Amino acid sequence: MSGAVRRVLPGLVLLTLVALGARSLGSTIPFLTPLVVAVAVGALLTNLVDLPATVGPGLRKHSLLLETAIVLLGASLSLDAVVAAGPPIVVLVLFVVGFGVLLVTGLARLGDLDRRMGSLLAAGSSICGVSAIAAVAPACEARETQIAHAAATILLFDAVTLVAFPAVEGVLGLDPRLYGVWIGLSMFSTGPVAAAGFAHSATAGEWATMTKLARNALIGVVVLGYSLAYTGGRLDGPERPIRQVWTDFPKFLVGFLCLAVVVNAGLLSDAVVSALRSASDALFLLAFAGLGFEIELAEMRETGLIPVGVVGVYLLVVSGLTYGVVTVLL
After folding, report:
1. What is the pTM assigned to this prediction?
2. Domain residue limits, the chain
């Protein structure tokens, strides 16, 4: 065994144990997803236990695990879902993502949050939850603690919305298709969207998933936008030459897009695609266990509940608007 492997092995073993425990708990406790448990356990351990220095090198590898998971996430991006959704829903998706990014960014500024934190929350709320946070973070040069804090905030709302939207639907009595489109436009992460949809009916689940995947398809566009925004200046000017944009651009996104093209072109078998999706899920769980170890309660106390307030206001505004639009236009 090489010296490099020996250095990272203790930390990787710890991440694996946390991930396995999170998967076990998340699959047995209702409304508690493995990602939520993984982040929570990591945060508890790092803030309550004096961890040995030997686990440090392995724990810091969570960034590499995260980037690899995002590349493999390309296997889950369905361009057919965007086409099948139809022009009205595609227009709604474009509106929700664009309006959502602007709304959260503005609210973050009003709350005096760090610009990078605002960008992470905007991506996570508007596109696809923690996956979007992970993809946007390198473009924003966000700190590990900011990534962890933003992810924890989004995961909190994933748990809340998984309970709240089905409960509200029980009062509203929406048509399954309208309910599916509504939660697909409003909720954050794909897993909770699918769960809340299929808990209602197969029709609601299909429309919810299809609408949510249409939102997910914009992740590449948003990451590119943030990459350009954070390098400053003009593309052809002295402040930001084109080569600097490429230097700062998160290269793993290229792998994500290439894999998405290969999968959507039908060049890989269903078995391979399924394996890639499973590997992505596993790596995300390991990576977010690592992010949990980056959560420092002292830093979170400095920002207090502002991130929760920002995302909460976004959710109320966007869910209200989309409900009105969906019930009138569809």
Report:
1. 0.69
2. 3-329
